[in-house]
Each structure stands twice: as structure tokens, then as C-alpha cells.
Amino acid sequence: MTSSRKQSSRPTIAILGIRGIPASHGGFETFAERLALHLTGIGWHVIVYCHTPGLRRMKEDEWQGITRVMLPASDTPIGTIRFDWSSITDVLRRNVHVTLTLGYNTAMFGARLRAAGVTNLINMDGIEWGRAKWGPGAKAWFWVNDWLGCWLGDHLIADNPEITKHLRTRTSADKITMIPYGADRLESAPVSPLAELGIRAGRYVTVIARPEPENSVLEIVKAFSAVRREVKLVVLGRFDVRGNRYHAQVQDAAGPDVLFPGAIYDAKIVQSLRANALFHIHGHTVGGTNPSLVEAMGAGNAILAHDNPFNRWVAQKSAVYFRGADDCRNRIDQLLANPDLIAVLSAYAIDRHEQAFEWRSTLSLYEALLREHLPVARRVEERMARTLAFGPDLIQHTETVGG
To answer: Are 351 and 182 in contact (CB under 8 A)?
Structure first.
């Protein structure tokens, strides 16, 4: 059997809308990597499109059995839009059975997939047009694409019940499936990476977020800096963007107990920071199920979270909640004075993670949804392949349940 024949005998998915794999940027990339590896491991052909600044022409390779298509694109909003257009152009040249688009920022391009008869599932992410960092033009762009994604996508994925409620204002409920993100359970990690950052295990609090107004970073830094602390606040994120007024405000508000180690993508260092933190502060005010919050819970962190429906559904009893800088200061004082409360919240975080945010469950739900949306001929071919693999018992079972 030739390699092309082998490839045609298995379902093919293209994953769109991310920077690429292996993950080194954020939650969508981590999810895409885990899903791609999972599907490849059970026989799918997975194609992932990678945003690659500095590349002169398209390049294709294989990474752990996954086809990576690297496309040249500048690291700008216009460059990202061009990358999404080029990704779809390449998809239409291939025998792709289903696409998974992560985010709706260029959902209008999905009209090309629909016209070509390619089934496109869209993870609708958060409410991007509600973020304070965007100006009127960008907000209008995202708002229009939010609507168009609901119309043009063959099926929509929400990562939080509150996102499901939002999407139901735009499309029918039977077009939406809620699947939250997953995270690894992190029971321990070495403390050695902490020394280079000038901190000690159990003597610091973490904030891991993009430094944007909607993530409450300024309010958190002000609250922590209101008085001298016996512990440090470690704020991960890129604060070296030249001329960014908000970044300057955050740094100006920081007291001597606040550290800015930068944007750290080394998984071992991030795991060490999470596993050995006293607690985690999550200030996101818009969006759905944020991967950073889920990862903190997987590490058994007690949570101090901004009080909104998104965070309350995710963290539930594993968090105390704040609104504004003054309230945040009071909650920080409360936690630092009450180690028993931190221990209780930590136990709740571990339990909540096991209930709702394990990777195994997340990936299985995605796999089932993707199989459901394969073309009919592909689903029949898959069923016949499984029958040949497992024998007459499977034939009898499929006849019993109606095939």
C-alpha cells in the first residue's frame, strides 16, 4: 500500500487560527498541540498551519507525525489576517475532511470553506470585541466576525457556559457544544528555577496574564503594593513594549515586593512557579474559560479571582473573588493572614480540576465532535475500517445499536 493510499484511508483535519506548534505562546497553541498529538495517535492525519515571521516562502515538514505547514507572515494584525487567508487557500488545495478554527478573528474567511463544502468547526474563544485594549475600529471588526462566525461556522464550540449563553443570542442552541480547556495535574516541580528569579517556594504569589487593562493587572499590582509584604508578587508577562502607556502605569504602581521577570515560555520554569506558589491571582474580566486559570487549579493553587460569571463557573469554591483594587487588597490581606483558608481553597482547586478540566476528557469530547462532523462517506469508511480491525463482534454490536 502506498503512503498516499494510507493517508487517504484516514480522516484528515486542518487546524487553523494559531501561531503554530510546538506550543510556545499561549493557551490555544497548547490546546492545538495536545489535540493534534491525540488525533495523530489514533490514526488521524492532522495538518497544523504555523504563523512564521521571517520565512521567505511556504515550508512543510512533519513533527511527531503531524504535518506542519509554515507560512510566511509578518507579526502584525495585517500579517495575521493574511496568514489566515493563506491558510484557507492552502486547505482548499488539499483533501481535508474537516477544519477546526481556533478563534473567530477572521471568521468571514470561513465563507470560502463553506463555498467549497469543507466542514468548519469554530472555537469561538472569548468576547474579543469587549476587551478594553481595542479601539473602535478593531472592536467593530471583532464584533462583525463574531456574528459571521456564528452564521458561517458549521458548528460552534464554547469553552464556558457563559460563552454558550452569548452565542445563543446569535444562533440556535443545537449548533453549539460546550467543551472547556484542559490542563495537566501538577503535583510538584523542582524549586531550583526559583533561585534565579530571587524568590523562595511558598513565599510568593503569581499573576500570569497578558498585561492588558481587561486582565486587571494594574489593580492587582496597586492592591499588592499598598503595604509592604513579607512575600513577593511575581507578574509574568511582556512589559517591554515601547511606548505602551498601560505597561508604564503598571510598572510605576509597583512597590518593592513586585517582580517582573518578563514573559517566560520555558515550561519547566512556569511549572516551578505554579507548583510552589502561595496562591494565584487571576484578574481576567472578559472571555470564557481561561487556560491560565485552569492550569493554576491543576497545580493546586488557591485562587483569588476577579468576580465575574466566567471565573465563578471555572473556579467555583476554589477561589475568593474581588472587584476593583481596594477589594483586591482586602482579599490579599485575608489570604496572607489565613493559611488554613489557602489550604482549603487548594483542595477545592484540585477537586474542581479533576471534575471538569482533565485533558483526557477535553480531548475525547473534541474527538467525538469532530467524528460527528466528518462527511457521511468518511464516517461510513471509518466504521468499516473499525469493523475489519475488530471483527464480527463489532458488526453485531453496531447492528444492535442501529449502526
So the answer is: no
